[in-house]
Design a protein that fits this description.
Elements: E1 2-4, H1 17-24, E2 30-31, H2 42-45, H3 55-68, E3 75-79, H4 81-92, E4 99-103, H5 109-112, H6 119-125, H7 140-148, E5 162-167, H8 176-187, E6 192-197, H9 207-224
Parallel strand pairs: 1-2, 1-3, 3-4, 4-5, 5-6
Helix pairs in contact: 3-4
Length: 228
Amino acid sequence: DPVAQDPHSMYTTAFRHDTYILAQLGYTTLLVNYTGSLGLGPDNIGLLPGNVGDMDVKDVHHAAMEVAGGFEHVVVMGGSHGGFLSAHLIGQYPDFYKAAAMRNPVIDMSSMVGVSDIPDWCYCESGLDYDVYHLPTPTASAITAMLDKSPIRYIDQVKCPVLMLIGAKDLRVPPSQGLRYVRYLKSRGVPCSLKVYPEDCHPLSSVPCAADSLAHVHLWFKKHLNLS
């Protein structure tokens, strides 16, 4: 069960309620600090911008293959950039991952850049210049670069069932990102389920939402992996 995180943070050995609960339910959980994560200095961080959707995806998949390559059931979950990676993984490696759960995922940076509260993230991670004091208007080349690095490119290759968890008040990754993904997948016959939390925003971190969303994740995986 690879779990992916934001591009320039890192997993530590600190307690996490989600991994603890998943372990109690019988999951083996893999937390991947891919290239660009904190902890290895600024040079490592600087390698990822311009290479998202490729370098980070390959790092996570390589780690999954090393740890779980012989497992019968491998699933993936993640939120924000972790959702971005989850969508990439099930699109780029459609025969390996058997189910996915995503929380407020980045699906298409080219459509997100105009409505997110962090448009600079879309420019930076796409390898483009951005001046916070003089907001750039999108150019055709910039939009193309963002689209080229987004998981929406691989929508036609997705096979596995997808659970989408959305915070209706998310200003960082607007709900339209996940809603579009579900709509496209359903039109292609891919099993999907959508859960919207009206009062939650990007982290889905209120206690009722955190508990409910994790319960939905487990039930989704249990259903589609035919677990007892």
